[in-house]
Amino acid sequence: MEALDSSGSVSSPQKVFNIMQPVMRDLDHEECWVLFLNKANRLISKEMITSGGLDSTIIDNKTIIRKALDKKASSIILVHNHPSGSALPSKADITQTQALNNALKTCDLSLLDHVIIARDAYYSFADEQTVDFTH
């Protein structure tokens, strides 16, 4: 997979975009996906968690945590799309990301980033320091 570096790790939002943009670019509805990573940030799996409407989808914290624990993931990256074409997060995106981050910490899991994909652009919560991801 070209989006991974030589060690096979997912180490940047650009790599997340390269992995997920072909899947999400032309969707006419929002989808929420999770990349499950091991301690070396190598991709264990990627999975669609929810499919929503034209301008929203649910981030189900319990489902995400259960799947991360089942897959023995150390960390996750949340990814969803904005069919509108604007990659900027909504207030709900920020609130839900912070809630997921806090919930994951209680299970000794890390949220490394939340990447919003809008056609050919993306927004990285980690790059923009929208949420404090420190563990």
Q: How would the global form be characterised? A: globular
Helix content: 25-40%
Number of helices: 4
Major sheet size, sense and barrel closure: 5 strands, mixed
Which blocks of ≥5 consecutive residues have pLDDT under 50? Answer: 1-6
Number of strands: 5
Q: Tell me the radius of gyration.
A: 13 Å
If you average the pLDDT, what whole number results?
89
Helix-strand topology string: HEEHEHEEH
Cα separation of the termini = 29 Å
Summarize the structure.
With 135 residues, the chain is an alpha+beta fold. It is 31% helix and 27% strand. The chain has helices at residues 13-24, 61-70, 91-106, 125-128; strands spanning 31-37, 43-51, 75-81, 110-118, 121-124.
Textual characterization of the structure:
By secondary structure, this protein is an alpha+beta fold. The chain is 31% helix and 27% strand. It is built from 4 helices and 5 strands; from the N terminus they run H-E-E-H-E-H-E-E-H. Strands 2-1-3-4-5 form a 5-stranded mixed β-sheet, with helices on both faces. Strand 1 and strand 2 form a beta hairpin. The radius of gyration is 13 Å and the shape is globular. The N terminus is likely disordered.
